[in-house]
Amino acid sequence: MATLSDVARRAGVSPATASRVINSSSKPVTDELRERVLAAVAELQYVPNAHAQLLARSHRSAVGVIVHDVSDPYFAEITRGLQRVATDRGRLLMICNSYRDPDRELEYVELLRGHQVAALILAGSGYHDDAFTRQLNEKLAAYEATGGRVAVIGRHEHSGDAVMPDNRAGGHLAGRELCELGHRAIGVVAGPRILTTTTDRLAGLRQALTEQGRELPERRIRYAEFDRDGGAEATARLLDADPGLTAIVALNDSMAIGALATLRARSLAVPRQVSVVGFDDMPIARDVTPALTTVRLPLVDMGVRAMSLVLGTGTSVPRFEVLPAELIRRDTAGPAPAQRRETAAPAPRARRADAAS
Amino acid sequence: MATLSDVARRAGVSPATASRVINSSSKPVTDELRERVLAAVAELQYVPNAHAQLLARSHRSAVGVIVHDVSDPYFAEITRGLQRVATDRGRLLMICNSYRDPDRELEYVELLRGHQVAALILAGSGYHDDAFTRQLNEKLAAYEATGGRVAVIGRHEHSGDAVMPDNRAGGHLAGRELCELGHRAIGVVAGPRILTTTTDRLAGLRQALTEQGRELPERRIRYAEFDRDGGAEATARLLDADPGLTAIVALNDSMAIGALATLRARSLAVPRQVSVVGFDDMPIARDVTPALTTVRLPLVDMGVRAMSLVLGTGTSVPRFEVLPAELIRRDTAGPAPAQRRETAAPAPRARRADAAS
DNA sequence: TCCCTGCGGGAAAGGGCTTTCTCTGCGGTA
DNA sequence: TACCGCAGAGAAAGCCCTTTCCCGCAGGGA
């Protein structure tokens, strides 16, 4: 690889001058030398060694991001928001997938710190695991102590800046909707119980049912992986245990899609026999058939906010933003079947949130 | 940030010794000093500066990847394959999204070269743009000249190692299937015409139709963005121009999903009135309703192969691997409607490639 | 007792870049 | 004419590590 001194030598100038030309520094350089340097750069196909640059420069510019899995639409959307702001501000993003492995998360914090990122963003559910949470907080605190900025998305156990989707309110929306549609036998297809996202959404759901005089016994909940296959499998277990279920809440849309697959395989009509409500409103939700009724989270916006917090001026008080959830009514949730319905169907209203395009 | 000399000072040893302990070098260090160093590391929360390390060490380890968009399932799958091999070999991946912008692609090649990646993988369609192709090849050649390894996935215009899905054969499969089902009025929802992927798939499709005595006039092709909305929009234009179409080939699954949305919005039954065939077989294809008949590409495997090529021993002859396409029959392609059907329906056969799970 | 060997440790030389500091030479002012 | 100031270039000091080279010392063999 050609180095800066190669360029300088070829142009017949000092490395200092070459550097100034290449970085268009404020220090003036005569046009003639500038030309010579530029020519040498082109001839040698010179590209500065980024590591040497980062070492020599003092200011850090890249931002580290740790997500569960970028290819999961939930995180893809959040990442889109992060990217948008980062690109606007000329920041590079280093994105790492933890695949929901707490140890890997810890490792990545170290790795990114080692890469001298200016800020760190952790997106995705926290864990009900005190030892891990303590360790993570220690590492984050150490990082912040050296001037690093930290923001978390969707996890409340860290003390720094945080952007939180209102998971609890979202769960509540889903629960209330199904109650109003007259459902009593409601099953839940949940993500891993160690995730705070799971328990938060579940808590809101349970609260809604309780308010309506229903309840949510443990036997109507199945925990599985937070993905399509997990949802399919949990739904199967749920139906095996209680064939009389008239509604299923899936704690994210991927699981909801799995639930729909299982229902289809068992020839249960949606929503005539069984209603389904998802969570997140990822893009594909409107394209499955029937289109998925779900709880929308402003995913892109969450990313935008988190990145803005972290790149903005730091305050000593950690900021905490809660972004609202919203119920999107499409076609998978309908009135409970008559023989099981307990209350009158609600007044008619527009049932579709968005037209097919 | 604590530095190595901070650690060394605190432990009362030289930086050399500290470095040896931290990197568990082969050079022996007495247990006592080792302990002291480790203690100092823990107390100071020391993390080595990755840039300094990379500068000091000679060997490059990270691998750069340029894709159109990781959150696009096509690339998500490829990336999964890349990751798998990279992780096995202890390599870090730097993934960059070009968002199908050739200039950004060029920039990223420079950027990754600057970051001293050991290898570079470009995934995604090439462009019908000679000036760009030449520039890219120059940059890649310059990189290879300094010992870098390069592999491309799905683009044939570069001379190095390449992994190619058989786009042409895939197009042929889709075309033949629809011909055998008796379709004559076949429309195509295509990606941007500047992409080689588009033209390759189109060429195979056209060949199949020609072989069956049909043809594929330009007026039955609509070009649009390679995503869901592009597919929806192109399908609408196609149907407006020719309402008598009995089949639509979408040149990727995202577009196919858009096509299904448009057909649904126009109350055209799939596959009774209009058949649809997609391309890629991304995971969601089996979960839409009706489940999507599509051409499967071994996406994960493509990633695995490319990474293996690039991390394997280099040969002077560039290797070129073509991976086969396969038709996956699900529920969106059926016999042409009777009044339009031109040949007898084919012999009955199993129509579903995979059971609902 | 002396020398050689080998182990454990440190000094120091990079690695490629940025940036401050220094130096030279010129034009302008008193 | 003497001096000051400044523009433009280079020298050199880091940035933080790794790794080679070298040194001192203890133990073993002659």
What does this structure look like?
Two copies of one chain form a homodimer. Chain A is α/β, with parallel strands linked by helices and about 350 residues long. Helices cover about 45% and strands about 15% of the residues of chain A. The first copy, chain A, has twelve helices and twelve strands. Chain A has helices at about 5-10, 15-20, 30-45, 50-55, 75-90, 100-115, 130-145, 165-180, 195-210, 230-240, 255-265, 300-310, and strands spanning about 65, 95, 120-125, 150-155, 160-165, 185-190, 220-225, 245-250, 275-280, 295, 320-325, 325-330. In chain A, the strands form two sheets. The first copy, chain A, has a six-stranded parallel β-sheet with strand order 2-1-3-4-5-11, with helices on both faces. In chain A, α7 (about 130-145) links the parallel β3 (about 120-125) and β4 (about 150-155). In chain A, α6 runs parallel beside α7 (about 130-145) and α8 packs parallel to α9 (about 195-210). The radius of gyration of chain A is 26 Å and the shape is elongated. The model of chain A is unreliable at about 340-355 (pLDDT under 50). Chains A and B meet through α4, α5, β2, α6 and α7 of A and α4, α5, β2, α6 and α7 of B. The structure holds a DNA duplex (30 and 30 nucleotides).
